[in-house]
Amino acid sequence: MHYKVTSQATTYASKINEYVNHLGIDVLSALDNCASIKVYKKGDFLLRQGRICTHSFQIKRGFARKFYLNNGKEITTELFFKDDIAISLSSYIMQQPGKEFIQAITDVEVSVMDYASFQEAKKIYPDLAILDGMIGDYYSIWLEERLFQFHTMTAKERYHLLLTTQPEIIQHIPLTHIASYLGISLETLSRIRARI
Amino acid sequence: MHYKVTSQATTYASKINEYVNHLGIDVLSALDNCASIKVYKKGDFLLRQGRICTHSFQIKRGFARKFYLNNGKEITTELFFKDDIAISLSSYIMQQPGKEFIQAITDVEVSVMDYASFQEAKKIYPDLAILDGMIGDYYSIWLEERLFQFHTMTAKERYHLLLTTQPEIIQHIPLTHIASYLGISLETLSRIRARI
DNA sequence: CGAGGCCTTGACCGCGGTCAATGCCCGTGG
DNA sequence: CCACGGGCATTGACCGCGGTCAAGGCCTCG
Description:
Chain A contains nine helices and eight strands. By secondary structure, chain A is an alpha+beta fold.
């Protein structure tokens, strides 16, 4: 079996990096002023269900996940690594209570950015509005690719794809969360792993 | 069985409408100048695989779909109705060749908007840039909800949800495309429909 | 009337889910 | 230091959802 590793999302991510690297020093410091560093312990919640997502969290160290409850079962929708930005999208956009939790899987250090401050900064620096748009576009592309996987791939294929594109996941994140993220039961994931 | 019909995506869609209704006359006419009306016949392609998505298509009359090929099989990813905007996202954003087709299911009348012209218009009218951002956010929310369905619901549940939220689909779109859109085979869809 | 598109129905079977038992690792307290 | 308990992962037994293959029905249109 052979899996292609490159994705539209990753190529676009490097475009965003490029854009950030060419931002003016004043723009970058304005961005910095919206944020502060914070540390959470393993198991802590950065965001709880029912709360408004008033901040975005960029991971500096450690791992986190986003999940919601469905009939009492936790469904993990996203896993976060270094430099990833964690928000509960619909709650963040509409500034209304959301259904998602964001939780530290290990001890994490995050750059916490205030929603309101960032909105103000965007008005002053159009470059930040453009950056915000690019990040939103990135997320859409990423979601489309994830949907593609659910639409066309078997459990085994989804796992192997994850394995090749993000091998660091396996070392640091409990299989329970990986299984949920892949949309399969812990037992089947275990069996897939057993048969190499 | 009971399905909730309201969704985050639809509430946000009405916010976008509200925003458009409060735009200045000059902004709206600038928007109009980027677009032109065009008619396609049933089966025609508005966009082909391998081409760059240089236009967005807002449906004025009729129905369309977006799909790609996976091992020779057509996978329908989106169905378009009145007022929906059809693009191949990653191709549109990066202005690079994409893998998706957009095809008229019935005769359609669409408002075709030029990418380059719209980019220019956004620079002059920040309100349009904001509108563009809102539409992008809407698509993300919609994708999240669709992913939620694939993550947690059975084929039968997905079908019934579609039936309650968009009953017009059944009258106008061939079951082959609906099945593909739901990620199930035509045969299972047929069986689901047979058992009420 | 025949051909082709579209949908239905039947037979079969494998992927992946659930339930339950067991194993393994590790922190805590007797 | 060992014993116990809890969290996490593995393994087995069972079975149902949904996929594939194949045949047949039913339109519409040339």
